[in-house]
Amino acid sequence: MDYLEGLFLGKLWSDTDFENRRHMGLFVLYGLLVVSVVVFNFFFGRMLLGIGSFGVLQIVLFALLFLACPFICFRYYRMPMAGKIIILIEKLFKSYLVMSFTVGQMMRYIRIPKAGLQDYIINYLNSTLESYTEQFAASAGSFATVLAVLAGGIHVVLVFALVIIAAIVIPGVIYLLFVFLQRGYDWLISRFVIKRVFPTH
After folding, report:
1. Residue 95's closest CA among 12, 181, 178?
2. What is the pLDDT of residues 11-42, one digit of tens each?
3. pTM attached to this predicted model
């Protein structure tokens, strides 16, 4: 329970030390989860649990939950267990909306048709190999093909690794951006509204 409170509420509304510890594993797992959903949506041609759909309804819901957050959370510890669970479910739903936004944005940048994925990969490998073969042809002579295969292989591996790293890191960065915006807004409302209207909260 303390872990979920620290994860979803932050130190302003919870007394856990969640934000004082590193959570690199959680960051990576979240990125892998988003990538898995993107891969599922791409290959199956449908959205897993609606993740990836972020239209007007989702924008309105997220905006309302974002703006209402400090007013929902400031009496969290005075609520009965049922009320706390409802708030944590609301936070989970807001995280779902953030993930849905992220998946939708990532899907927009996938320009490769599913049916042509194999041809695209083969053409990319061939073009990379041909490019390096031409570069080494004049200087390496009969070893041009060998050097081209080695250099092309390293090139492809590096590109693939960079794409995977970016695909894992970007979702986490987007999520943290939303978290920081929420924390900043919560602090302002707590400092200038809640503490003045509800001084004994």
Report:
1. 178
2. 777 766 555 566 678 889 999 999 999 999 99
3. 0.84
Give the residue among 70, 35, 65 at the shortest CA–CA distance from 51.
35
Dist. CA 174–CA 185, nearest whole Å = 17
Place of tokens 């400092």: 191
Max Cα-Cα span within the chain: 83
Q: Where are the domains of the chain?
A: 2-197
Cβ-contact 99, 171 below 8 angstroms? yes
Q: Are 31 and 171 in contact (CB under 8 A)?
A: yes
List pLDDT tens digits, range 151-164: 888 888 899 999 99
Site of tokens 């972020």: 54
Report angle CA 150, 154, 155 to the nearest 5 degrees: 115
3-state secondary structure 60-127: HHHHHHHHHHHHHHCCHHHCCHHHHHHHHHHHHHHHHHHHHHHHHHHHHCCCCCHHHHHHHHHHHHHH
